[in-house]
């Protein structure tokens, strides 16, 4: 039985040198998609940013309050607050990669924004783009009412 457990940790969970995980995107073979290294961290960051605080039962402080900025004024103060929230939440819950830059782009209709995070992990560079708009806000309200 110990061999199966060791095999699980080495092949599925990861090893000392490689981060591995599965995401809920179904591959062409019908399996969950397996991701490695920086993509594992970016997937974790995506979950942190899209989870509203006080909705995760086991850790009410987990997540972010980014959805609250959707209808705020489109000014530099709002952009700065969004950037601070992103950096604070990611460094608090998952600091495995270095955040190189956080770019905030306001949507043209004024009802949302895009967060683009540039990151580096062990020489690997990547980015994560997350949209927050009025539909994000509506989904959060719907889920909270259930």
Number of separate domains:
2
Please name the CATH architecture of the largest domain: Roll
Percent of residues in β-strands: 25-35%
Number of helices, where a helix is a run of at least 4 consecutive DSSP H or I residues? 4
Using the coordinates shown, work out and report the CATH topology of the largest domain.
Nuclear Transport Factor 2, Chain: A
Radius of gyration: 17 Å
Task: Report the order of strands and helices.
Answer: HEEHHEEEH
Oligomer: single chain
For the largest beta-sheet, the strand count, sense and barrel status come to:
3 strands, antiparallel
Protein model, in words:
With 146 residues, the protein is an alpha+beta fold. It has 4 helices and 5 strands; from the N terminus they run H-E-E-H-H-E-E-E-H. It has 2 domains: 1-36, no CATH class; 37-145, Nuclear Transport Factor 2, Chain: A (Roll), CATH 3.10.450. The chain has helices spanning 2-13, 38-50, 76-93, 134-145; strands spanning 20-26, 32-36, 98-106, 112-121, 124-133. The strands form 2 sheets. Strands 3-4-5 form a 3-stranded antiparallel beta sheet. The protein has a two-stranded antiparallel ribbon with strand order 1-2. A hairpin with a 5-residue loop joins strand 1 and strand 2. The mean pLDDT is 81.
